[in-house]
Amino acid sequence: MRETLKKSQIERFSRQLILKDVGPKGQKKIFSSKILIVGVGGLGCPAAESLVRAGIGTIGLIDNDIVSLSNIHRQCLFTSKDLKKSKVSVAAKKLREINPSTKIKTYKSQLNNKNIKNIIKNYEIIIDGTDNFKTKFLINDYCIKFKKKLVTGAISKFDGHVFTFDFNDKKTASLKNFYQ
């Protein structure tokens, strides 16, 4: 990685660079970060957009769904023009328009026992934006096994919850403890 930031990077990320806990060193870490977002819906869309705007180096998007009319009002990367298109394809295109420097890798599939190991190994942080316990537990198990950082969220009507786990930290509990 370059020792100094380019002028365009300084201008684009100036509001982050002035933060004491970020600065140039922190921004360089952001540029080199690799994050996987599982589920490109009500949680995954705003997470992906915010991360791309922050300058994350690589984002993986996994979802096998297509954009439907009921997605438009709550999934910020989609519009009526996107109906019946692959969520990951549409999201990747829009995210690249926001920040062409972020590498976007798409997976048009559902995360499962057969593909999770090959996908998850390429990322440091996993964001779980799924809406079913089977996939949440699968992600949790693999994050524990491969010592990944996990951010998981859930929304129900007007309530939302976010949990973070660093499975390199022995004190971190498993996601299963929160849902039992």
Give the arrangement of secondary structure elements.
Layout: H1 7-12, H2 14-17, H3 23-32, E1 34-38, H4 44-54, E2 58-62, H5 87-98, E3 103-107, H6 116-120, E4 125-128, H7 133-145, E5 149-156, E6 159-166, H8 176-179
Features:
single chain, 180 residues, alpha/beta, 6-stranded mixed beta sheet, 6 strands, 36% helix, globular
Question: Would you give an account of this structure?
Answer:
- A 6-stranded mixed sheet has the order 3-2-1-4-5-6, with helices on both faces.
- The longest helix has 13 residues, at 133-145.
- By secondary structure, the chain is of the alpha/beta class.
- The mean pLDDT is 91.
- The chain is globular.
- The protein contains 8 helices and 6 strands.
The Rg value, from CA coordinates, equals 17 Å
Low-confidence stretches at least 5 residues in length (pLDDT < 50)? Answer: none
Largest sheet: 6 strands, mixed
Percent helix: 25-40%
Which sequence of strands runs across the widest sheet?
A: 3-2-1-4-5-6
For the residues shown, what is the average pLDDT?
Answer: 91
Strand segment tally: 6
**Which descriptor suits the 3D outline?**
globular
Oligomer: single chain
Order of helices and strands: HHHEHEHEHEHEEH
How far apart the termini lie comes to: 44 Å
Number of helices: 8
Report the structural category.
Answer: alpha/beta
How much of the sequence is in beta strands? 15-25%
